[in-house]
Amino acid sequence: MRRFPSSTIETFIRAVFVAAGSEPHEARIVASHLVEASLMGHDSHGVIRVSKYVDWLKAGQVRPNRHARIVSDRGALVVVDGDFGFGQVIGKEAMEIAAERGASHGVATVAIRNAGHLGRVGAWPQMLAERGLASIHFVNTSGFGILVAPFGGADRRLSANPIAAGVPIKGGRPIILDIATSAIAEGKIQVARNKGEELPPGLVLDGHGRPTTDPEVFYAKPPGAILPFGGHKGSGLSFFCEILAGSLTGGHASNPRSPTAERLVNNMLSLAFDPGAFGDADAFVDDVIRLVTWVKASPPISPNGKVLLPGEMEENVRCERVANGLPIDDATWRALSATAASLGVSAPMG
Predict the structure, then answer these.
(1) Is 41 exposed, middle or buried (0-12, 13-18, 19+ CB in 10 A)?
(2) Element (H or E) spanning 16, and its range?
(3) Residue 7 β-bridge partners
(4) pLDDT tens digits for 304-339?
(5) Residue 210: count of CB within 10 angstroms of its CB
């Protein structure tokens, strides 16, 4: 395990993407997003993704230097096509539209189809919360990302299908929910595999539908499947992510026969709300703060425990990693260094 200042890794990753064909603006956005994900403890959506992204670029599965293209505009409802560009860029541009339309109309619906991997989905409600908007987001991965068994099933039929939401807090950190409807993100299985660690029980099935804690078995032939969180509840939410993010946006639900099944494609349906459009914005803020105070006042279940709101675990990890450096496991570092070397970029010493 190595630790680096986050600025060092961000500069390095930016150079990798420039060498891979991204314009500097795109490389900066992607690198910043990946490093921020790792800082917040979402290692599965952080720097571990760099080598895979470059592989997708080389294979033409992700296209460099693309932008969110509006294909339908009804004022408060906008549909954008990502043209298979980097999801970090497409997502940012789509949220700029959502922020502008939400401020103009009070509410805004922005649908993204055909984007590359959107990365840490919590970044999108956070961006809107910083603009004063509450929001909720549904995401799916059409075709290439089928990983999750439905409730009662033994093989892969659904994608990990995250849901994120956010609300602004006047004078404080926005409250951000960022969860997958799967019991674990696939990237976290990869992280465990890289570290040579077992998975907790109850998360993954092997290729024969049997429970396993071995991350290697998940990648064997036949491949394993991730379970939905909360049994039928997570499976039901995942099913509707497929419909809302996939079918409704025109980006397609998970299916090996979908038009985008041969590449990783993220689709997202985002709903943004201006609290002031619903009445008294100050009353909204006060009511949320009362809720926060009420919930946080619950007696901790353990003597040294704390009541945590959505996003507080990530913020605690971020503070530790900013102070002590960004940890990168040896397998991820070897892959990242090899990818950089193949593009003529030198890795920093660590």
Answers:
(1) middle
(2) helix 6-20
(3) none
(4) 899 999 999 999 999 999 999 999 999 999 999 999
(5) 11
